[in-house]
Amino acid sequence: MNGEHAIRFLLDGRIHGVENFPPTTTVLQYLRDHLGRCGTKEGCAEGDCGACTVVLAELRGSEVEYRAINACIRLLPTLDGKALFTVESLKAANGGELHPAQRALVECHGSQCGFCTPGFVMSLFALYRADRNPDEDAIRHALSGNLCRCTGYRPILAAARRMYEYPSDPGDADDRKLREQMAAIRVTREKRCGVGNSIYVAPITVAELARTLAERPDATVLAGGTDVGLWVTKQYAELSAIVYLGNIAELGTITRTDQSIEIGATVSLTDAFAELVAEYPDLREIARRFASPPICNAGTLCGNVANGSPIGDSMPALICLGATVVLRSGADSRSVALEDFYLDYRSRDLRPGEFVAAVRVARARKDQLIRSYKIAKRFDQDISAVCAAFSLEIAAGRIRSARVCFGGMAATPRRARACEQALVGTDLNPATTAKAVQALAKDYQPITDLRASQAYRLRVAGNLLQRFVAEATQADENTSVWSYAG
Questions:
Q1: What confidence tens digit (pLDDT) does each residue in 375-421 have?
Q2: Which position among 223, 273, 382, 481 has the lowest Cβ density within 10 Å, counted as fewest Cβ atoms?
Q3: Cα gap 258→394, rounded to integer Å
Q4: Residue-wise DSSP of 315-329
Q5: pTM for this structure?
Q6: How many helices (H) does the chain have, and how many strands (E)?
Q7: Domains in the chain and their CATH numbers?
Q8: Are 320 and 389 in contact (CB under 8 A)?
Q9: Residue 182 and residue 177: Cα distance in Å, rounded?
């Protein structure tokens, strides 16, 4: 298709064009209903089960980056300029032979009922292209977004190890060809498409974005779409205007200075957490357990912040780090402390036409202790009942300043001011901790819902504070353990 505003992406080594589709069409719907590619399955339609996993390839500088995503909540127009791989693509790319990931699953008997198998194949393919020598933890993490309904994980893990024993796929040769093909379909101008009253706009500059938001202040701003996708698949929302940020290069950068790290609006959660954990290694638990790789590969840190959910797992840690959000409207920008950004449940300090352009956090200090913990019913792929973060500055053995923040305890992620006051100026010891735990009841009156009761949330919040103190006062790093709901 040669239409000026056609969406073009690579599929099986060919340029594939799409026109005249509703902007809310998901990649999964398009693959199954219009291309007859039924290897990609629909399970949960919310990015939770992994049956719909596909792989996107994008140009990152001169390199091709392969990442698994969930097709069920990815909107079709966002494929523009990228390369898409489905389970059917792998055999075609290998000259009719099974890809090592497919062959290993067959030989290790990794397919039971088979419904989830294509998703596992695609997660393994993404791992195969990204890491040629993964350890056991890396393998398990790569598969953490795929649920096996037959509980047959052992042979699937065996297949993940065995696939590296086979002759490799074309790899580098494929990458060279992909680079040339993606250069030919690189998005260099604003795209506008849609049908009927639905419009999709993908600007490539902040100036174009400002103009569009001024024209359509009611537009849905789309970055990763891991929540917007659910509006479509679960709430059947009719979005009259979607403005996609993913083609604006200026918003996809991470900037480091001596004082701060600034993470742009379209930086994925995968890349954002990698940067934050490099600066704050003790945030590794919340980074590991935030969500599955397909969700983190698609979602963005700024999107999580802008969404403003009371159980958004990035916000407690960011608030404890004193993060600010950079808000843009045309050429105008302003910075707001993240803790002040949330006014009430799903209500933010966001003016008409403004969007979250970046999140800025301070660089780590030597006297700072920082941790963030997540409590959920499952280790992987679950929504928090409680998410906690703590940051202390200690000088001469005494707590000089304290930041304590919880998600899931109030209508917004919120600091525990009474708890902080109980900590400041004291030694970090059991007696101090006990008083701070008692103060939490002044800070929060959590609700009871399907994830946890009010009493459970308060008890867990106090227990997490005690855990933080125990870890912070013991030099042995092995005291750190993962958080479960119990």
A1: 998 888 888 999 999 999 988 888 999 999 999 999 999 999 999 99
A2: 481
A3: 22
A4: HHHHHHTT-EEEEEE
A5: 0.92
A6: 18, 20
A7: 7-184 (3.10.20.30), 191-244 (3.30.43.10), 256-362 (3.30.465.10), 368-479 (3.30.390.50)
A8: yes
A9: 9
